[in-house]
Amino acid sequence: MVVASLSAKKGHQAVQLTYDGEGLRIEGDVTAAKRPKAPRTCFCIPLPPPKVSNPLLLPIQNINLLNVEYGSTNMLRISALIPDKPAEDESPVTLYNLVYSIDPQDAEKATKFSSDIMSQVYKDVQQGKRLKVLINPFGGQGKAKHIFETQVKPVFEAAKCAMDVQFTERQGHGIDIAKEIDINAFDSIVTVSGDGVIHEVINGFLQRPDAREAIRKLPLGVIPGGTGNALSISMLGEKSGFDPQYTALQVIKGKPMAFDLCSVTYDDKRYFSFLSQNYGITAYADLATEHMRWMGDTRTIIGLLQQIFGGKSYSMEAAFDIVKSDKTSIAEDYPVEYDRSDQQTAIDDSRGGQVVDSIPPLSEPVPKGWTVVNDDICVFLTSKVPWLARGMLTHPYCMPNDGLIDLMLIKKGASIGDKLSVFDTVDKGTHVKSKIVDYYKVKAFRLTPVTKDPKQKNYVAIDGEHAPPKPFQVEVHRSLGAVLSLDGRYRSTTI
Ligand SMILES: Nc1ncnc2c1ncn2[C@@H]1O[C@H](COP(=O)(O)OP(=O)(O)OP(=O)(O)O)[C@@H](O)[C@H]1O
After folding, report:
1. What's an example GO cellular component term for this entry (predicted)?
2. Under CATH, which architecture does the 4-121 domain have?
3. Which ligand 1 atom sits nearest the alpha carbon of residue 140?
4. CATH number of the domain at 269-475, out of 3.90.1720.10, 2.60.200.40, 3.30.2270.10, 3.30.43.10?
């Protein structure tokens, strides 16, 4: 383990820097501590500001260090994203740019000190990535541009990343950009948007003649700039996945993680989905309440309650290639620790060419061995990510590249009380334990929405977007995509 120390100064004040191979401790920089928020008042009497710990007294971990460099002006510059509450899981992070003067006699020592640290900090990650940044100016109700400029750009600059920034100008622009991008000119394509632009980028890549190679060569960097941000939350958790600076750290320090994508066919269309396919009362709650967007998230709750109290159900003819159907064994198989090497191997497989489905086309009969379920259901919801939104841990056993789609199914006939309790417990994922919830892992499926009552409108949503309520089929392609990830898995869900 490397142990190095360096004496520096901030003004006249002596500062001691110590590096132990895993973290950098800075002692003596008393002005670096984050200032507490405005003092509080109580009945007009000002209260003393709350005590704030000095994060520099803790070693700044390698993962949090962005850049350490000694320059010609005898200055040592340190940039780091430091957790505000280091002991807390999913703590927000703050960007610190610290500058210390070094005695010119120690120039050689300072150069070695900084290069030793940098070689550890970027031990197996590329330093100074070349980023193609796509910003949806309308993402997150128009906040994405501001988020990028105030929170993300300074972090990428501190880490010496090269940025080529482009605003998406219309619906579908993300598809065209990904179709045309020079995959050798960048190390990652970063989206500052919701899941909509990510969906477009993935589909643009997969329309290219070199689809497989392109999508792996330019891993996605995901910055939450939308309203939902399901992929970001699923990778980092409900708080960190919504923290632009923490997700920027994931882009800088993340390694490519392979993740599965679903090939979806309906009519003469085919595209790739990385989130969900939805039919039944949850699709209704999302799509039929679009006109109530002004209400925010409340609109979907109102939609759901309408459907539950109205006893609504939907008919389907479906068939599944089921791999696992026992909830207990699915829960037992869910790994507490995840083996990253799996994903590295998958990423190294860089065959080019387009993605060909292995299941027969929709026009042909259901393959032998599939389970046919022609029934009335309340909820049919498949997903490749555990969280579909904050507070919606719908598929807690989802894995990024197990080659399987998780299906949650609630059939007709469940009581109103049981259905309400499912939606009451979905925030923690414990709804899957309810007797009315069936949970499967499938490789592929086919679904035909059946309209029994002409007055009832059937809704189908794929990755949150309307799809015609026509027959469609889905096949998962294992490890097809690549996304930059700090720890190489979806966030562990312990339920
Ligand atoms: N300049 C633009 N004008 C109009 N639409 C755009 C523009 N840029 C992107 N879009 C479209 O906006 C849609 C939604 O984008 P995105 O998911 O990024 O944001 P959001 O709606 O805030 O987030 P969420 O999907 O999480 O609700 C995408 O389908 C994309 O095609």
Report:
1. membrane
2. Roll (2.30)
3. 22
4. 2.60.200.40
How is residue 136 annotated by DSSP?
Answer: -
CA 134 / ligand 1 centre spacing (Å): 11
Q: What is the pTM of this model?
A: 0.91
Task: Write the pLDDT tens digit of every residue in 327-355.
Answer: 999 998 887 666 655 555 556 555 678 89
SS3 117: helix
Nearest-CA neighbor of 294 among 427, 146, 461, 141? 141
- Of residues 202 and 284, the one with the higher pLDDT is 202
Report CA(344)–ligand 1 centroid distance (Å). 31
Kindly provide the ipTM of the predicted complex, given to two decimals.
Answer: 0.96
Residue 399 predicted with pLDDT over 70: yes
C-alpha dihedral sign at 268, 273, 278, 282:
negative
Structure tokens at 205: 């890549």
| Record: fold of 130-253 | Rossmann fold (3.40.50)
Q: Find the residues whose C-beta lies inside 6 A of ligand 1.
A: 136-140, 168-173, 193-197, 200, 226-229
Q: In angstroms, rounded to a whole number, what is the distance separating the alpha carbons of residues 477 and 403? A: 6
Q: Which of 197, 202, 242, 300 gets mutated to test ligand 1 (max ligand atoms within 8 A of its CB)?
A: 197
Q: Residues 460-485: what's their mean pLDDT? A: 90
User: What is the token pair recorded at 174?
Assistant: 């993300």
Mean pLDDT of the chain: 89
The CA distance from 356 to 265, in Å, is 12
For residue 217, what are its two tokens?
A: 């060569």
Instruction: Map out the domains of the chain as residue ranges.
Output: 4-121, 130-253, 269-475
Whole-number Å distance between alpha carbons of 393 and 436: 17
Q: Are 57 and 27 in contact (CB under 8 A)?
A: yes
- The β-bridge relationship of strands 220-224 and 188-193 is parallel
Q: What is the 3-state secondary structure (H, E, C) of 170-192?
A: CCCHHHHHHHHCCCCCCCEEEEE
